[in-house]
Specification:
By secondary structure, the protein is of the alpha/beta class. Helix content is about 30%, strand content about 20%.
Length: about 170
Amino acid sequence: MTSRARMTSRDCAVQSESQRIRIAPEHPKDILAMRFLALLLTFLAASPALACGSDTDCVIGDRSYRLYVPDGLGATPMGAIVYAHGYRGSAANAMRNPSLRALADDLGMAIIALKSAGDDWNLAHRPANPGQSEAAEYSYVAAVLEDVARQIPLDRDRLVSTGFSAGG
């Protein structure tokens, strides 16, 4: 019995029921290429840049931040609440704040939770280091905003900056 049926998703034809369909590659180069592709896809899936969000760090140089985007905003340009934690705080802890997320949902804005380089922000004129400059923090925030703008349609005319204690 011979039947010819064409599959619509691929340009493959089954010529008869007695023919075997080969799925696995026979050539060693093909096997090597498939293994390389599988390894590459595994690496990309685990990449911080692809997994960046409210539960995982978005990495900028030796610093990081976290990003929360309310559901359903899509491609519409959105503003953002830029949040700086207090002394010994973290972006991860900021993202665990349900009230902050609820505010972002209500306003239709993203949350960008910044993370200091150490326990605290580099603030000018603080008692521990009165000669310190804030230039590193300005550069960090500018880099974060550029990175966020590559990920979401960020409306830079709708940015709000806030924080807690030393971050506020």
